[in-house]
User: Which sequence fits this backbone?
């Protein structure tokens, strides 16, 4: 089957960028104001789809982190802990509303800075970030109802470190529950995607939050380490790789710091022969090619029941052929730019490994832009359980397909991984769904759907995918002494 | 030898000393290492007690892992019945526990209280087995047309270090909430109070608790902490404060596979130290999504 689909070609439909406002360079946001540190160290944030410079970002020093933590501590001991839950909630409501009003600007900046399709930042990242703020705003004065027979108290100063795959959304996931429960925060966005967090800082300033409630420092891993290891940080919340998560857990072992970790994944997406195949194909595509596969819960291991393997793979390849890879600012784009040169090198390395291990390689033949970092939707069939592409997190648009015959076999294979963040199950039989969803060692299980998120829905992993939950009532306890 | 002495030795029979072995997979093996230690309390030796080795830890974890899935699959009602049964068996042997606690240096009144409280604590958690899920689960009102719910599942295999100072009640206070949700565990008994831990194993062995659900080792925390906190098939660790140096090492090793480590600093003799949040501490939250069909003409009405 050829995948030319020439009759599906669409005219370019680029989102305009004229309405956004970005500074040439950004300082750090401490104690309610943007500061330009005297050391003057900066790095460049580029657009991964063009390589163009977007802005210069401050490489924070240990001194900057110190100031941010001090401001957070002062706010925690002062105004923020005195104003009461209802008023705290109103600040968050106000911020949520302001984010909704500026959603277009945030979506455009998110796609420029991170490379994700504008359709996703517009329809997923930004609205979900606002929804998260709304959701936790409402909890602020209701926390005692969530913990029967307890009198929960805020933890104090939360150090929060977030990844580059959903920059604004992760900032909202971290800030919203922390503030609702009465904590103050020092947040570090990922070095390749600091812009929307800094824009959020502008909104926080505009919303009139007391100074120091939210502080944002930018930079690379050592800035994160300075936050994690700061003596006056009471709680660490980290989203990122399992490797770094282990380092963090180890480095705070000698302290009483609280910690939640949301780490990597290698989710099994399981399709039984009685599934609605066309819907399953949509779910598989959404599971692995959403956000270029830069998703910790991506359905990167596909398990297909043997009897439908050939039919499903043919349909999947056909559907992959319709995916439009290219300009993130084009509203028709399905797969945008890979977030960074480094990540592209990682993905390309794994593709080579997959070929060398003997799996059968398939990639769509779409054209790619000349500039920037790109990877075509990729599929490996005939993958063995022991192959590295079936064991290790690639964090790119690369799907590893295996087959199975029985329910018992696929449960064993699916759970045979150190990760346990998410899983998917496709079948038309209710009792099979409930068997499978309860057998999966994973924190989120999507049945006959995939990659859905909601502020009311707790998210987080089993095993080496981390501990603690974000979202829902269960997300509150990470920021409370119960 | 005078007569009075002769008379008294006729009346006194020679006491049969008990061999305290470990409890792994429902059986009572000696340590594979053939090493023993002799805990001394108030100048008298309690007996020969197994000094567990790394291999014993690994054997016990294998037993706990093998037992975990089927223990978790039992109905909550059945687990509740079994926890209640443990309490019944403990009640029946309470005098032996009191005697052993006294031998381990606890005052008689305090020993009686600890045993009574241990029995009551088991009953308390027996009652929670089929109730905590309703307290901590949720149906989540997501904005899309999906049925979305979160439930608690056991974390898996939990390594439990029994309280040094509270050898029976401290052990029961951690083991009961750990197994209530369907976890299995390996317990390291109090180094200086191992007798009541092993006698408790005898209670477990006769209480319908399947082999491997609770495994009890005796030995030295200084020697064993690295082996259990680095073990890749242990999901979580439960212990009291053991001192900064030891707790730090345990947490550092635990990071190698992201173990959940819960360190408690409470007086287990207080009734309020028992609560369902301890059950939640050794559970994972699982969230499940499923689409809900939306057909406009099918709205139900009165």
Assistant:
């Amino acid at each position: 089957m050829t995948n030319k689909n020439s009759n599906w070609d669409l005219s370019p439909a680029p989102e305009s960028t004229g309405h956004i406002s970005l500074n040439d360079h950004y300082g750090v946001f401490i104690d309610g104001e943007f500061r330009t540190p005297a050391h003057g160290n900066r790095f460049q944030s580029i657009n991964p789809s063009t390589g163009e410079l977007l802005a210069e970002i401050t490489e924070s020093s240990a001194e900057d982190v110190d100031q941010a933590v001090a401001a957070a501590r002062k706010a925690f001991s002062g105004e923020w802990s005195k104003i009461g839950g209802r008023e705290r909630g109103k600040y968050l409501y106000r911020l949520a509303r302001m984010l909704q009003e500026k959603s277009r600007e945030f979506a455009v900046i998110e796609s420029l800075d991170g490379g994700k399709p504008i359709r996703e930042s517009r329809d997923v990242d930004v609205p979900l970030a606002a929804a998260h703020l709304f959701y936790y705003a409402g909890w602020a004065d209701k926390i005692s109802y969530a913990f029967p027979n307890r009198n929960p108290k805020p933890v104090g100063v939360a150090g929060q470190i977030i990844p580059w795959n959903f920059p604004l959304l992760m900032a909202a996931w971290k800030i919203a529950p922390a503030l609702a429960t009465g904590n103050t925060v020092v947040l570090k966005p990922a070095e390749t995607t600091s812009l929307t967090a800094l824009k959020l800082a502008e909104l926080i300033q505009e919303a009139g939050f007391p100074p120091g409630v939210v502080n944002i420092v930018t930079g690379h891993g050592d800035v994160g380490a300075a936050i994690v290891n700061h003596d006056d940080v009471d709680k660490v919340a980290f989203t990122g790789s399992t490797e770094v998560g282990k380092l963090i857990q180890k480095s705070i072992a000698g302290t009483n710091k609280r910690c939640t970790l949301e780490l990597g994944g290698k989710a099994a997406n399981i399709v039984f022969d009685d599934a609605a195949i066309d819907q399953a194909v949509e779910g598989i595509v959404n599971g692995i090619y959403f956000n270029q596969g830069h998703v910790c819960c991506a359905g990167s291991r596909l398990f297909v029941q043997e009897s439908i393997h050939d039919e499903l793979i043919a349909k999947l390849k056909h559907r992959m052929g319709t995916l439009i890879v290219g300009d993130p600012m084009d509203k028709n784009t399905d797969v945008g730019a890979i977030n960074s040169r480094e990540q592209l090198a990682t993905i390309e390395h794994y593709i080579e490994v997959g070929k060398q291990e003997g799996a059968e390689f398939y990639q769509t033949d779409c054209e790619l832009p000349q500039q920037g970092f790109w990877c075509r939707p990729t599929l490996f069939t005939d993958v063995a359980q022991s192959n590295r592409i079936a064991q290790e997190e690639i964090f790119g648009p690369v799907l590893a397909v295996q087959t199975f015959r029985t329910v018992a076999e696929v449960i064993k294979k699916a759970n045979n991984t150190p990760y346990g963040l998410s899983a998917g199950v496709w079948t038309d039989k209710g009792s099979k769904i409930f068997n499978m969803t309860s057998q999966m060692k994973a924190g989120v299980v999507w049945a006959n759907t995939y990659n859905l998120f909601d502020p009311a829905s707790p998210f987080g992993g089993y095993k080496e995918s981390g501990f603690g939950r974000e979202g829902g009532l269960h997300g509150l306890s990470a920021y409370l002494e119960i | 030898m005078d007569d009075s002495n002769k008379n008294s030795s006729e009346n006194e029979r020679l006491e049969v000393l008990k061999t305290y072995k470990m409890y792994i997979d429902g059986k009572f093996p000696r340590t594979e290492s053939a090493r023993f230690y002799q805990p001394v309390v108030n100048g008298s030796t309690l007996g020969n007690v197994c000094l567990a080795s790394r291999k014993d830890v690994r054997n016990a974890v294998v037993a706990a892992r093998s037992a975990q899935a089927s223990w978790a699959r039992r109905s909550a009602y059945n687990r509740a019945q079994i926890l209640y049964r443990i309490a019944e068996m403990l009640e029946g042997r309470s005098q032996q526990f009191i005697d052993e606690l006294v031998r381990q240096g606890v005052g008689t009144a305090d020993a009686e209280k600890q045993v009574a409280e241990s029995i009551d604590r088991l009953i308390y958690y027996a009652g929670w087995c089929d109730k905590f899920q309703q307290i901590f689960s949720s149906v989540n009102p997501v904005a899309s047309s999906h049925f979305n719910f979160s439930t608690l599942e056991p974390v898996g295999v939990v390594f439990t270090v029994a309280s040094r100072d509270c050898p029976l009640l401290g052990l029961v206070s951690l083991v009961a909430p750990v197994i209530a949700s369907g976890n299995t565990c390996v317990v390291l008994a109090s180094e200086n109070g191992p007798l009541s831990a092993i006698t408790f194993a005898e209670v477990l062995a006769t209480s319908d608790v399947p082999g491997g659900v609770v495994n009890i080792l005796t030995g030295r925390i200084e020697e064993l902490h690295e082996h259990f906190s680095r073990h890749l098939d242990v999901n979580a660790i439960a212990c009291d404060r053991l001192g900064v140096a030891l707790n730090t090492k345990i947490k550092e090793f635990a990071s190698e596979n992201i173990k959940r480590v819960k360190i408690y600093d409470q007086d287990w003799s207080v009734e309020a130290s028992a609560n369902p949040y301890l059950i939640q501490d050794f559970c994972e939250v699982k969230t499940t999504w499923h689409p809900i069909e939306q057909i406009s003409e099918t709205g139900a009405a009165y």
